[in-house]
Amino acid sequence: MKKQEQEWKEKLSEEQYKILREAGTERPFTGEYNMHFEDGTYKCAGCNTPLFTSNTKFDSGCGWPSFDEAIKGSIEYKQDRTLGMLRTEIVCANCGGHLGHVFDDGPTETGKRYCVNSLSLNFNSKT
After folding, report:
1. Catalytic residue among 44, 92, 95, 115
2. Cα separations (Å) of 119 from 19, 89, 124, 127?
3. Domain containing 78: what range?
4. Fewer CB within 10 Å: N-end or C-end of the chain?
């Protein structure tokens, strides 16, 4: 999904643009979905691609929504060397929007912790 930057600026809020298009990060413990545990699907706020299901979400205590598994094919992984460390950035496979990072310190059997900015997500309830 290719959009011109002006189109993204018109579609997204200023805060969403900073995160999704400029790889920003929201402050911890401030996001709408950090402590959100309803049944449903979390989708990319940029293009509405389903990314995570509620049954993969857990409270990691890190201050951002955390998931132990993404919907197959929904995420692309990129090496991130910013902030003087090596991390794995996660972006939406459809629109390239920055979502957050994935770490190998999750408490479930996957061993993964997808640490995601709330502003990069929309939620669709199962009900």
Report:
1. 115
2. 7, 16, 14, 22
3. 5-125
4. C
